[in-house]
Amino acid sequence: TLIQHLPADMPKTIIVSNRLPVKVTKQDDAYQLSPSEGGLATGLGSIYKQDDNLWIGWPGIEITDKRDQHMVTEDLKELSLLPVFLTQSEINKYYEGFSNEVLWPVFHYYVSTYAHYSQANWESYQLVNQKFCDAVLEVANPGDTIWVHDYQLLLLPKLIRDARPDVSIGFFQHIPFPSDEMFRLIPWRSELLEGILGADLIGYHTFDDVRHFLSAVSRLLPVQVSANVITLGERVVVVESFPMGIDDKKYGDLSQQENVKTEAELIKETFRGQKLILSIDRLDYSKGILQRLQALEILLENHPELVTKITLYMIVVPSRDQVPQYKELRDNIDKKVGNINGRYRTLEWSPIQYFYKSLPIETLSALYSSADVCLITPMRDGMNLVSKEYVASRVHNDGVLILSEMAGSSKELIDAVIVNPNNIQEVSRAIVRAINMPRAEQSRRMILMRQNVSKFNIGHWVKIFMDRLNEVKQMQRSMQTR
Ligand code: F6P
């Protein structure tokens, strides 16, 4: 196993998440590795290799053949990654069915429209969390730190604690924690909370998520909650907000790379005489993509003078496309883009350049540095690291970020143009304001946002989480010796 790689007596950190930061794909019978999509993978992906960390997770594809599993395991081992292989039925029930048809919609306030409760999917969720636990137990030693990530693994902290009380367990959730009024609708709400409470330290992106979690715990479980500390018998668990940062230097440096600069020049040349508005999201109803398109439509209706003068460069990264609501959303986006382009396009110009694919990081960087405006309007989002990536890429302190107040990052990037994504008129007006914003104002706002993104970067995030986890462990030890 991977543990042979590391000196057995050195305490280590084991990161566990549903998806590894690297995904495996198969082409012509050969397996290939490429970076995974999503905030967790891109955020932590650049730093997990430091200090002999290990990362356990699903490689993103069903591999049944034992020899293939072995081969992929060996390849991933080189990157300090340990795969947990899921069967197709587990992918359907645990990942698509429970994680993305119960937890994702409820936690993003889409309860009545999208939540689909199924006992079989819940059972699979339990079994797969146990499967992840078995993988952790295979490599964990006493004194190790296990850092569990996100909503797909809510039961894992308790499963690990029951089997190995001698390790430190941190849990961080990358998506919002909803109001108790939403959360308590879930049939298995108590089991989920008890699962999370297996951790010593529980982290969320924002203070509101912490508040919601604490009120759910105090209403649903017979435990004592005082400020942000939960007492369960002899144990105390601490809950706090740790807004996730990005590798700001990586994005700043990338924008200065020669190949990226050349690509950015080409983009600017292509859209000469126009304002370029960029939007980048995973395919997801929580991202407000259709509402954003509506805002653009209203803008074109109300401002005929802007026809041929702006382009929305919209990248939607394929995601969860086997889940029915995602398929439907994709069709609706196709239709809406088609309608708007069909109505407004001229021989030389289209209002929307739409891409349904993931793009290499160099191309993203070129787009970040050439876009006049970045338009990020999720209906609800745990953090939204794209907003921070745009800011980190603007090394000349220009450009305008339009940001939904429902994104966690809006609590930090307060110098963005903040909008309510449900107010389509407001979003449309914000675009007009952004494209007309004087350079001095752009600069004033961007400098403040850049300071924030660079001070509270990913290194800072990992450090404050880990330092706090150590403090909590010490607090627990001193309580036991009293
Ligand atoms: O960042 C939030 C998150 O839900 C991660 O947990 C997840 O890996 C990512 O978005 C992408 O989603 P998925 O893994 O379902 O493709």
UniProtKB/TrEMBL annotation:
One of its GO terms (molecular function) is alpha,alpha-trehalose-phosphate synthase (UDP-forming) activity. GO terms for biological process: trehalose biosynthetic process. One of its GO terms (cellular component) is cytosol. Signal peptide: none annotated. In the C-terminal section; belongs to the trehalose phosphatase family. This is Alpha,alpha-trehalose-phosphate synthase 1.
